[in-house]
Design a protein that fits this description.
Bound molecules: nicotinamide-adenine-dinucleotide, (2S)-2-hydroxybutanedioic acid
Shape: globular
Number of helices: 11
Structural class: alpha/beta
CATH architecture of the largest domain: Alpha-Beta Complex
Number of domains: 2
CATH class of the largest domain: Alpha Beta
Strand content: 15-25%
CATH topology of the largest domain: L-2-Hydroxyisocaproate Dehydrogenase, Chain A, domain 2
CATH superfamily of the largest domain: Lactate dehydrogenase/glycoside hydrolase, family 4, C-terminal
Distance between the termini: 42 Å
Strand order of the largest sheet: 3-2-1-4-5-6
Number of strands: 14
Helix content: 40-55%
Radius of gyration: 19 Å
Length: 327
């Protein structure tokens, strides 16, 4: 029997948590390898979380090696090999952007410090809670001793949305769509890149051959999909966000499929002119727990302008959290 792999999940009593935990426990992350769960919540949500744990018990998952819950990040991150930072402060009516950054800044500075104090030496961190890129930036700046390459933010949901939409338009199964990239921020400024994607091995823009659809339909639909789900469901995407958080983590830990890349927001190493350290989405391949940015993709003037707009937004968020003393 192999050693259990410890996964810490924050915001575990929330919507995404409810869609995520059962999949983690049933083997969707690491197959038969036993998984131990450490679930962090704010004090008032611990009662609800107890119910979630009862249900986990009632599933009798053979590879679930234990579940702990609590509201102390240092205790819940103790020995974590993977931390899924899902819990965040949602924007409320009347809240300014700076209020949101301040509220999340408090959460992600504390959690960055707690990860540095108690997580396992090999910890990897994925931030799902919004604003995901900047929350990851705050966390890595406050996690002294953990290499910044171990921090990432989720843009896999945008990546999956883009693949699904392109596949539908092309009339092909999703598996035929490869080479998708999300550039920039997990926000409406993101740039989903059709021009480096392929359908059945053929450049996607040649397959589709409709710039109007790409510019005025595909790009805004992907970028605004989160808002569309909120408008339809009354709350933000949960099952698809949980699925993307697992796929992101699985590819990172076990490797991306041969010949394919995925999208992850990671601290920039300066590739494609993205300012060093900014947590921006790139095309990445992963192998044995490390990611590397796919180099040399052609970027047109149109694409560069879109990417620059998203980078401008990320730099604005970085400057705001710097001014607040969070990084
Ligand atoms: P939710 O409100 O249902 O759950 C969030 C949970 O986080 C709550 O139970 C809350 O008590 C908990 N929480 C708040 N502060 C915490 C803290 N300091 N420590 C631990 N737990 C804390 O929200 P949800 O639908 O599960 O979404 C969670 C986050 O994910 C939101 O920020 C949402 O915008 C974001 N999201 C991101 C993506 C993405 O693709 N990156 C997609 C969907 C949703
Ligand atoms: C999503 O992309 O579905 C979410 O990030 C939307 C949101 O604001 O929670």
């Amino acid at each position: 029997m192999s050693t259990p792999f410890t996964v810490a999940v924050t915001g575990a009593a929330g919507q995404i948590g409810y869609a995520l935990l059962y999949r983690l426990a049933s083997g969707d992350l690491l197959g038969d390898r036993p998984v131990r769960l450490r679930l962090l919540e704010v004090e008032p949500a611990l009662k609800a979380l107890e119910g979630v744990v009862m249900e986990l018990d009632d599933c009798a998952f053979p590879n679930l090696a234990g579940v702990e819950i609590g509201s102390d990040p240092r205790r819940m991150f103790d020995g974590a090999n993977l931390a899924m930072l899902v819990g965040a402060m949602p924007r409320k009516a009347g809240m300014e952007r700076s209020d949101l950054l301040t509220a999340n800044g408090a959460i992600f500075t504390e959690q960055g410090r707690a990860l540095a104090a108690s997580a396992a030496d090999d910890v990897r961190v994925v931030v799902t809670g919004n604003p995901a890129n900047t929350n990851a930036l705050i966390a890595y700046h406050n996690a002294s001793g953990i290499p910044r390459e171990r921090f990432s933010a989720l843009t896999r949901l945008d990546h999956n949305r883009a693949r699904a939409l392109l596949a539908e338009r092309a009339g092909r199964p999703v598996r035929d769509v490869t080479g998708m990239t999300i550039w920039g921020n997990h926000s409406t400024t993101q740039y989903p890149d059709v021009f480096n994607a392929k359908v059945c091995g053929v450049p996607a823009d040649r397959w589709i051959a409709d710039d109007g659809w790409i510019n005025f339909d595909f790009i805004p639909t992907v970028a605004r999909r989160g808002a569309a789900v909120i408008a339809a469901r009354g709350s933000s995407s949960a099952a698809s966000a949980a699925n993307a958080t697992i796929e992101h983590s699985r590819d990172w830990l076990l490797g991306t499929p041969e010949g394919e890349w995925t999208s992850m927001a990671v601290p920039s190493d300066g590739s494609y002119g993205v300012p060093d350290g900014l947590v921006s989405s790139f095309p990445v391949t992963c192998s044995a727990g490390d990611w590397s940015i796919v180099q040399g993709l052609p970027i047109s003037a149109f694409a560069q302008a879109k990417i620059d707009a998203s980078l401008g937004e990320l730099q604005g968020e970085r400057d705001a959290v710097r001014a607040l003393g969070l990084i």
